[in-house]
């Protein structure tokens, strides 16, 4: 756990790095742009539905419903969209961290082709949707507890996020498909849990994916070093 706290501290300390700032700007703008586009589409859809089925001029009621719907969607789906977008810029985060802290690792970095990046993103999206749907009955049953539902979804997404953040780095450095990632399951879960919690906080959620990827980079390289010297 100490190594995770150290990785997070180093990642926060590198937020001012121009390379990291560029990724932050791109991922934030694209993620927000996706939600803005969805919001506009939802607005026109609701306005047309209200005009057709309610009769008369909806008088902007569709805009109100669309805004409310997008706030809910952003809270529920921001993690999915942000991680999907970050997949395409993960190389830049990994390279920025490695150039400052692990320059010897650059030789083993493998750039993933766009097709592989897209496949990884779609697999991640599928896992996220699938496992959250599987957790839904248990989460619904725990609604009466007040906090049980939130804990179920946090646990599921901590597991998923830890795996995704690890893979963003590890897939670029492993020597073969059978090589095991050098991050322990507990550390991976803790990293995912911290990032999952950050994604629920407005504005902090814009930083969370990049901080998670940078922290995973530290954990992978420190883990590899410890494995070599074990």
Write up this protein.
This is EI24 domain-containing protein. Its main location: membrane. It is a multi-pass membrane protein. By secondary structure, this protein is mainly α. The chain has one domain (2-228). Helix content is 77%, strand content 0%. It contains eight helices and no strands. The chain has helices at 2-13, 18-53, 61-86, 90-101, 114-141, 148-170, 185-198, 204-228. Helix 5 runs antiparallel to helix 6 and helix 7 (185-198) runs antiparallel to helix 8. It is globular. The mean pLDDT is 83.
Order of helices and strands: HHHHHHHH
Work out the helix count: 8
Which class best fits the helix and strand makeup?
Answer: mainly alpha
What level of helicity do the residues show? over 70%
Strand percentage:
under 5%
What is the gyration radius calculated from CA atoms? 20 Å
Shape: globular
Query: What is the strand tally?
Result: 0
Low-confidence stretches: none
The main sheet comes to: none
Question: How many structural domains in the coordinates?
Answer: 1
